[in-house]
Specification:
Length: 463
């Protein structure tokens, strides 16, 4: 017996919420395995097979056994697993109405207002209630959440519904589209994660029926859900997502290019070289496509710069920095991409606080302390290039002014900035530009320059 309990498959089985009938069947299987009559693979797969059988059973039963409304709740719970129960129930009734319409379009959807027993509903779903915090746009709030006992249930259930019951697809697709239109960020996020699972199961269908219509929508909200769907699909192992993004980044439809650029920013840290290559190609195409300044797509240029910004602040920051500095002398489109992304990154602070530590400055200080000359010099060079480029001088000086104001509130920030500033002066022009800023910059609310400005001015090497 101790040898059986030590088997990984046994430990896994005991870690999931199985029914008594499944426990009894597993015990019999173990007895056969112990007698040499069953293979170890059969033992290892028993837990997942039992779950798959249970899910299949739910949707194969007639409505007298498992009502259509309960089936809608099971699907909604798979999409909102460990989410607020009230939200899951509300949106499951929306799906229930759509499923009714699929069964009989001549009848109006009927949704009972009362009569639902939470305990029975959760017992059927093999789920539980718990109290937990949910992040909202107003901060974390405590809510009653519903979750499957077996964390694998949502993936198995969505796969079963999407591939095993194609007749449910029209209602499910319409439901997901309505979720993508919802004003609540949590709902839109769960719509994206649900579609990501469907894409992992059947990529061509998910792309054609859900993701591409979102990606070509004129509504920002829809395109953003498409971005999140592709990103999440990639992270759970769906193949070919980078190839989709590569194709969309060069598409005629600017909406597809927008989705590709946004997605590159999110999946780029794991493949920064490829992401930056694609972003540069998109930038070149943008400048070629809009040669007339009056027709220049400002929004797309902004998205490209924001994608570079996110990559610079990602775990792949050092590789991204090296790549950007290596292409600073390329054509205008590529230079704008690099400088625009860098200046954007310089505006970001720790905790997104107004006077928090600038993330790029902290990165520079850490690199200088660790003796990482490549990173330290790369940041300094990008600063010099941004300050000296007529297209970015104003934005770069605004970012530097924000850094000085942050230094007035933090000694650590002041020390880091005092270490960086001397490396930004290699010519008389660079000295004059920074010294003028430090001598004349206004403080908060039009007050005189903060005292720290004079101390920082003393660190500049005169040229």
């Amino acid at each position: 017996m101790p040898r059986l309990l030590d088997l990984p498959a046994v430990k896994e089985f005991l870690g999931h919420g199985h029914q008594l009938r499944e426990v009894a069947a597993f015990a019999q299987l173990l007895a056969r395995y112990f007698a040499g009559e069953a293979a170890e693979q059969e033992v290892a797969s028993f837990s997942l097979v039992s779950l798959e059988n249970q899910v299949r059973e739910w949707f194969e039963e007639d409505e007298d056994t498992v009502h259509l409304r309960d089936k809608a709740f099971l699907i909604a719970l798979a999409a909102f697993d460990d989410g607020p129960y009230a939200l899951t129930a509300e949106l499951s009734d929306l799906l229930y109405g759509l499923l009714q319409q699929t069964q009989n379009r001549s009848l109006a959807a009927e949704i009972p207002v009362f009569g639902t027993h939470i305990g029975k509903r959760l017992q059927l779903a093999r789920a539980r209630l718990s109290e937990g915090e949910e992040n909202t746009e107003w901060g974390p709030v405590t809510q009653t959440k519903a979750a499957f006992h077996d964390e694998r249930a949502s993936l198995v259930l969505l796969r079963e519904v999407w591939t095993g019951h194609p007749s449910a697809r029209p209602a499910l697709i319409q439901w997901l589209r309505q979720l993508a239109d919802d004003g609540r960020p949590l709902v839109r996020t769960r719509a994206a994660s649900t579609v990501a699972v469907l894409a992992r199961t059947d990529l061509p269908s998910a792309m054609a029926l859900v993701i591409e219509p979102w990606a070509t929508s004129n509504r920002f909200r829809h395109r953003l859900v498409a971005v999140n769907s592709l990103t999440l699909a990639h992270h759970i192992g769906t193949p070919n997502v980078p190839r989709i993004l590569d194709a969309w980044s060069a598409a005629e439809d600017r909406r597809l290019r927008w989705v590709a650029v946004r997605a590159y920013a999110l999946i780029g840290p794991e493949r920064p070289g490829q992401a930056l290559t694609a972003l540069r190609a998109a930038a070149r195409e943008l400048y070629k496509r809009f040669g007339d300044p009056d027709d220049f797509d400002v929004e797309m240029a902004r998205e490209l710069a924001e994608a570079v910004e996110l990559l610079l602040l990602s775990p792949a920051s050092s590789e991204v920095l090296d790549d950007l500095t290596g292409h600073l002398d390329d054509e205008r489109a590529v230079r704008d991409l690099s400088l625009g992304g860098f200046v954007n990154a310089c505006r970001q602070t720790e905790g997104d606080e107004r006077y928090g530590t600038p993330l790029v400055l902290r990165w520079y200080a850490d690199a200088a302390t660790a003796g990482d000359r490549t990173v330290a010099e790369g940041i300094a060079r990008l600063w010099r290039e941004a300050l000296g480029d007529p297209g970015y001088t104003r934005l770069a000086l605004e970012s530097m002014r924000a850094w000085v104001l942050a230094a007035s509130r933090s000694t650590t920030t002041e020390w880091a900035l005092a270490a960086l500033l001397p490396r930004l002066v290699t010519t008389p022009t660079e000295y004059q530009r920074l010294s003028h800023l430090l001598r004349t910059m206004p403080g908060e609310d039009g007050n005189p320059p903060p005292e720290v400005a004079a101390r920082l001015l003393s660190t500049l090497p005169p040229r």
